[in-house]
Model the fold of this input.
Amino acid sequence: MSVLDQPRRRLVASCIAVALSAGLFCTTAAAVELRIGTQLKLMTLDPHYADLNENNSLLAHIYERLVNQDASLNPQPGLAVSWTRISENSWAFKLREGVRFHDGAAFTAQDVIYSINRIQSFLKPPSGGFQNYTQNIKSVTAPDPLTVVIETTDDAPTLPLSLTSIFIMHEQKDGFATTENLNSGSQPVGTGPYKFQS
Done:
């Protein structure tokens, strides 16, 4: 073996070792169970029933919001990628394409309409908090599957901030999901990073 062959052999051996070790990191990760411990008692699995920190901190793993907030409380894209104030009483929200609910259904503007209407029309006291975020909303329409237009009763310059508190649910074809069904674990279907399993 010549002296010139030794560096070449080391280089080839190093490349093989790197390639083999890289294969170890490319394997598919196994699914793991996430358990969440909290000192607070969860009141409900209904994302629109009670606006309480203990509920919202858990439900944020299952559901997502139309608009998020950064550390400085500025609105940031969530399920809506952008929003434009059309007039003093009107906003248009462009929705994220390719989002799926945990049951495989596509996220569309109809789910936003359903969620806002559920808060305004279906849930009645003692459900608390979320009606405050929708009280100025006069109507919600969908000119196309990925656009929502929200008309307000008066000037609403902070509407995107109000929407940072509302979780979006999947539209139920047979009417509004009841708090009882959600609490039983049969219907909590969101777009969040974790799927609820009872």
